Amino acid sequence: MREIYSCLEDYDLAIDDFILESQTFPVIQEDPTGTCPYCQKPSAYRLTAMPGGIVPPPQEMQDEKEIDG
């Protein structure tokens, strides 16, 4: 998974693109070292994949699924 840099104005677009591409939520960190690909302004954030991939649901949700199934 690639990382996506984003300025403050295009933050919502970056999150949408990240979720569409990776099918998971990003880890969001402040990072002014990149360039926003949407407007070419300096970045404010860097979105990356969570280490280890997709996080399993909390135990309560798994328990409900077993009861319903």
Automatic annotation (TrEMBL):
This is CxxH/CxxC protein.
